[in-house]
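Before our next group meeting I need something from you. Please put the record directly below this note.
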Amino acid sequence: MEQKNEILELSFDFALAIIEFSEVLENKKKYVISRQLLKSGTSIGANIREAQNAHSRNDFISKCVIAMKEADETEYWLLLCEKSPNYPNPEELLLKILSIKKLLSKIISSSIKNRKNEK
């Protein structure tokens, strides 16, 4: 039986939601933010997925840190949408990215702790 990987599932579902939101932005001719969001928002899950095949704990941590940076960038673009009067409200996406960032933070900190315990 395959074990559930919460961060993989959250990031994949988030990427699908980002694709939908980017399409809404494209329809409203908000091309620049749409493309930035599409790149950073889908990159989170891609980096997390890549981390699953890391060659070492350090490689795993590095890929998770990259995913966190992409999450931060995505949150920035979503906050711009939230504060801009001519953009759709990304309230639900902001809640999702916060959950992803919290979980990623826990994964990174516990991986760093475990790395130190190995030495």
User: Anything to note?
Assistant: The chain has a mean pLDDT of 95.
